[in-house]
Design a protein that fits this description.
The structure is a single chain. The protein has 249 residues and is of the alpha/beta class. The chain has eleven helices and five strands. The chain has a five-stranded parallel sheet, with helices on both faces. Helix 7 links the parallel strand 3 and strand 4. The radius of gyration is 18 Å and the shape is globular.
Length: 249
Amino acid sequence: MKFSDIPSHESAKQRLRDMIDNNRIPHALLLEGPAGIGKFALARAAAQYIHCENRIDGDSCGKCAACLQHQSFNHIDTHFVFPVVKRKNSSGAVISDDYISEWRDFLRDNPYMDFQQWLVSLDSPNAQPAIYVSESEQLVHKLSFTAHRARYKVVLLWLPERLNVDASNKLLKQIEEPFGDTLFIMVSNNAKAILPTIYSRTQRIELKRLPDDVIADSLITRYSIDETDAMALAHNAEGNMITAINSIS
């Protein structure tokens, strides 16, 4: 994912570029804002830019080994953390890696991170997935090793508001005393629900709803919708690309 692949959010993109180019990346960064606006895509683009071996004009090259690994969700120094459900008939620990195949498919098909589609991917449409303490324990273990190929290990954490209490407390210690080569980029749809002690230790970038014309252009390009219909759908979606896409009959 490159910055140029993401419509809108030009100010946020520039802030991220400046942080990375000037080596002033916070150890815990939070992208917050409403659902359906491309926050996680922006987090992915930032991680790829951090690891890119040949940045060009304020963007990752998309061609080096690191970029190709990011595009296949296989970069060795990038770790994904996301809400999961306990598998049926299982009482053991559950972590994101248990669902990594489903996660990769979800990322390919849902750049705007439709939460309901993630539940379908988990085969649990009525569940309330969470990030459990076993996840935090596993993550701390992973991060104890030095980065393999890059200067930084990057943790992309989707929906920190779904960390349970024990997981939050375990992760808090890691954020308070981070490894020098570790960066957290968190993406939240509801920042008010994040544990306040974690929220206060992040540097935050607030993202706004998408403009109607951006949504309409995407609908026209991707779905060959008439311009008038696309603008109507975009207006009704109130800045949420997921709502606009799901409203196509």
